[in-house]
Amino acid sequence: MEMQIVFPGGAQVDAITPDGMVITTDQDGSAPAPFGLFLASIGTCAGIYVLSFCQQRGLPTEGMRIVQRNHFNPLTRMVDEIELDIQLPADFPEQYKDAVIRSANLCAVKKHLENPPRFDVHTSVIAHETA
Q1: pTM of the model
Q2: Is residue 44 domain-shared with residue 71, that is, in the same domain?
Q3: What values do phi and psi take at 52, rounded to 5?
Q4: Shared-domain flag, residues 88 and 54
Q5: Which residues, in sequence order, are CB contacts of 107 under 8 Å at separation 6+?
Q6: Which whole-number Å values give the CA distances from 71 to 16, 67, 83, in the listed order?
Q7: Which helix (H) or strand (E) is 53 found in, with range?
Q8: For residue 128, is pLDDT > 90?
Q9: Contact 49, 106 (CB under 8 A)
Q10: Does residue 31 contact residue 48 with C-beta atoms inside 8 Å?
């Protein structure tokens, strides 16, 4: 899978996905900053799995939310713990509470963080097109 990262101007950096979607990031506040988008991908990924679990079982999701708390190490200023608090409505069936946690733990973003990929950062020269 190839994704193109382009620089449309200012502090904006966009990612163009293989299906043509554009994900905009910006350090000036007009779009999420890349790190904020990264952190949001963790909670939203867990949310996709929780939502799917509930929908497959006909469980209501109204009033449900996930609160993500990112705990930073004050010395390294790196995130050293991410807490996902799945907040359920009072009438949510007790029998599904552990299963909701298991479904959130299936998140592909979380799994990739637990088993991170190797990085290969290098340069190449763009071939000039001739008319």
Answers
A1: 0.87
A2: yes
A3: -60, -45
A4: yes
A5: 42, 45, 46, 48, 49
A6: 30, 13, 8
A7: helix 34-56
A8: no
A9: yes
A10: no
